[in-house]
Amino acid sequence: QLAALRADPGRLIPTAVEELMRYDTPLQLFERWVLDDIEIDGTTIPRGSELALLFGSANHDPAVFDRPGTLDIARRDNPHISFSAGIHYCIGAPLARIELAASLAALLRRAPKLRLAAEPRRKPNFVIRGFEELLVEV
User: Fold this and answer.
1) Is the pLDDT of residue 93 over 90?
2) What are the residues whose beta carbons fall under 8 Å from the beta carbon of 15, sequence distance 6 or more?
């Protein structure tokens, strides 16, 4: 995927940003409170209940995504919910996309031989994902 991105960044950076957000969603879980009784798939959820929404799981739903476990930076049909949805949609999503695309383009341009120097180590957190350490060689 990295070789493909390096070969055609102008075309692939926009879809790569979306796919990276889908594939490894930074915010895995978000909580919401039910405002009115609602039925979901035959189960009644009463008003006042707290729900944990699993963005990472939703972004790997095989009913929504073809080959959800595969990173495909050219993926076109990508309705991920990494920035949430509806009235809770992240107001900063457009800016985040611009920043991610610009950063990725600059990184590819300035460090064309960038590669991992060691296996990345994740922070031990299941809500907000991230790396504790990401060693690279340029």
Assistant:
1) yes
2) 73, 74, 75, 76, 78
